[in-house]
Amino acid sequence: MSRQLSDRSRSVHSAGIAEVHEVPFHVIIRPIPSVLDEDKVLSLVETLKGSNTKFLVPPIDVLWIKGRLGGDYFYSFGGCHRYEAYRRLGVPSIPCKVIPSTVENLRVYLGSSIPDLK
């Protein structure tokens, strides 16, 4: 399922992408440990619980990379508080801006520790 967002919900990385997808948590790879502000996470949880306020929380950006054998890989580096808030709510997916990317772009984030993406 996808939805459209207003301009104020766009990040620098996904400014040209309007569509938002519900991406299952189990496919999102978060290789960098999050440093969380507990009060911020709790505030987001409360906002997400409200039927009139949940749409105020912007989606996270996810890099979509095709592996060399055609596998799909979804990497997320930002949005750690939003990610954690949704996770605590126990929902199966999270709203994401899916940004088509490449292994070369992933190397910017991970350097030489990039895995072999099949």
TrEMBL record:
Top enzyme category: oxidoreductase
SUPFAM superfamilies: ParB/Sulfiredoxin (SSF110849)
The keyword Transmembrane is annotated on this UniProt entry: no
Pfam assignment, any one: ParB_N
Enzyme Commission no: 1.8.98.2
Alphabetical UniProt keywords: Antioxidant, ATP-binding, Disulfide bond, Methylation, Nucleotide-binding, Oxidoreductase
GO CC entries: cytoplasm
Domain of life: Eukaryota
Gene Ontology terms describing biological process: cellular response to oxidative stress
Catalytic activity: S-hydroxy-S-oxy-L-cysteinyl-[peroxiredoxin] + [protein]-dithiol + ATP = S-hydroxy-L-cysteinyl-[peroxiredoxin] + [protein]-disulfide + ADP + phosphate
Domain ParB-like N-terminal residue range list: 21-106
Entry GO MF terms: ATP binding; sulfiredoxin activity
Binding of ATP, residues: 79-82
Sections of the chain in a coiled coil: none
Family named by the database record: Belongs to the sulfiredoxin family.
Protein name according to UniProt: Sulfiredoxin
Species in which this protein is naturally found: Nematostella vectensis (Starlet sea anemone)
